[in-house]
Design goal:
Elements: E1 10-14, H1 18-24, H2 29-49, E2 54-61, H3 69-92, E3 95-100, H4 108-120, E4 127-135, H5 137-150, H6 160-166, E5 177-180, E6 199-202, H7 212-223, H8 234-242
Parallel strand pairs: 1-2, 1-5, 2-4, 3-4, 5-6
The structure holds 3-methylbut-3-enyl trihydrogen diphosphate (IPE) (2 copies) and magnesium ion (MG).
Length: 243
């Protein structure tokens, strides 16, 4: 990896462990989610300071609807209050926010708050924050196929580059670094298509405790990786990318 590639352009994060963080403190799970938002705000700023261009976080999965109703409604209210509390700061810090996921099944008030965040930050260019909300990697592949078919793309024309243009993250390069906190070593239906060649870092840190030190440890780990992309050496891969 040459020095220019040592800082990932795009980091994807499964922000896991909020519930266990709260449980350890004998507090309701919701408190963990609240502190999780503060961790997110700090990490986005730290990423911008380090020259990362894109951060994509898993905030609510298509499977998370199956949690107890009280937790789901708490998370929906938290989405709304987070926008009210942090949007002005995000605008000021140059963060461009995009929501990725199936918005059609999100309640109107939640959707309106999320779309307000997108709209108010759309001229920002310092860092791109994508919030995966009601997102699933399988949903993403299916919706991309549906859009391609609706556009009249012929089966023989449907190659990887074409399908990529219909994927929810088509505006961003694929994630270089994929971090999951909370100790579990699984993808849980996050960016299945886009993470084909991401470098994975699994951290035991519970998400509300994830700060600059943990981010820097993940970045240092990433910088030591030899990204071969199926080739024999990372130097060959870099030369091919430049050609
Ligand atoms: C991740 O933390 C946040 C969401 C899924 C919304 P969890 O709520 O999954 O926390 P744990 O894994 O139960 O500790
Ligand atoms: C993944 O975490 C989803 C988010 C962080 C939003 P989960 O806690 O839902 O994943 P599993 O259930 O442990 O696989
Ligand atoms: Mg979890």
């Amino acid at each position: 990896m040459d020095s220019a590639q040592r800082v990932p352009r795009h980091i994807a994060i499964v922000m896991d462990g909020n519930g266990r963080w709260a449980k350890k403190r004998f507090m309701p799970r919701f408190v963990g989610h609240k502190f999780g938002v503060d961790a997110l705000v700090g990490v986005v700023k730290a990423c911008a300071d380090r020259g990362v261009e894109y951060v994509t976080v898993f905030a609510f999965s298509s499977e998370n609807w199956k949690r107890p109703a009280e937790e789901v409604s708490g998370l929906m209210s938290l989405a709304i209050s987070t926008v009210s509390k942090h949007l002005t700061k995000m605008v000021g810090e140059g963060v461009r926010i995009r929501i990725v996921g199936d918005r059609s099944h999100v309640a109107p008030a939640v959707r309106a708050a999320l779309e307000r965040a997108e709209e108010s930050t759309r001229h920002n260019t310092r860092i791109n924050l994508s919030v995966a909300f009601n997102y699933g990697g399988r949903w993403d592949v299916v919706q991309a196929c549906q859009k391609a078919i609706a556009d009249g793309v012929a089966p023989e024309a449907l190659d990887e580059a074409t399908l990529s243009r219909y994927m929810a993250m088509s505006f961003a390069p694929d994630p270089d670094l994929f971090i999951r906190t909370g100790g579990e070593k699984r993808v849980s239906n996050f960016l299945l298509w886009q993470a084909a060649y991401s470098e994975f870092v699994f951290s035991d840190c519970l998400w509300p405790d994830f700060g600059e030190a943990e981010l820097d440890a993940a970045l240092a780990d990433y910088a030591r990786r030899d990204r071969r992309f199926g080739l024999v050496s990372s130097a060959d891969a870099a030369a091919l990318a430049k050609a």
